[in-house]
């Protein structure tokens, strides 16, 4: 498995966020049903944003992850002000097979 950390920065008070949230959650649920999500959720401080951790096949490259995450309705609707995608190496973890 390869792991990728995706961080989103967005305005938590954006007027369209609530409108698009159901589509975003459906997108995340689809990835989760495909066993590609290790965890996903918003940051709880007032700054907004979220962290999504993907678990993907060993042959996955960064461009593949960009393609996957470009399908997120938050991204499509331009609600994400900044997105960062980085491969992550969990040296100590409790979620490997």
UniProtKB/TrEMBL annotation:
InterPro entries: Dimeric_a/b-barrel (IPR011008), YCII (IPR005545). Residues 3-89 form the YCII-related domain. Gene3D superfamilies: Dimeric alpha+beta barrel (3.30.70.1060). It comes from the Bacteria. Belongs to the YciI family. This is YCII-related domain-containing protein. The lineage of its organism: Bacteria, Bacillati, Actinomycetota, Actinomycetes, Mycobacteriales.
């Amino acid at each position: 498995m390869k792991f990728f950390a995706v961080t989103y920065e967005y305005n938590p008070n954006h007027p369209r966020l609530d409108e698009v949230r159901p589509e975003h959650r459906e997108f995340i649920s689809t990835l989760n049903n495909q066993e590609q999500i290790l965890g996903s959720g918003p940051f709880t401080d007032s700054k907004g944003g979220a962290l999504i951790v993907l678990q993907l096949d060993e042959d996955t490259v960064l461009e593949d992850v960009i393609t996957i995450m470009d399908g997120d309705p938050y991204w499509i609707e331009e609600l994400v002000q900044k997105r960062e995608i980085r491969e992550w190496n969990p040296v100590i973890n409790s979620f490997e097979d």
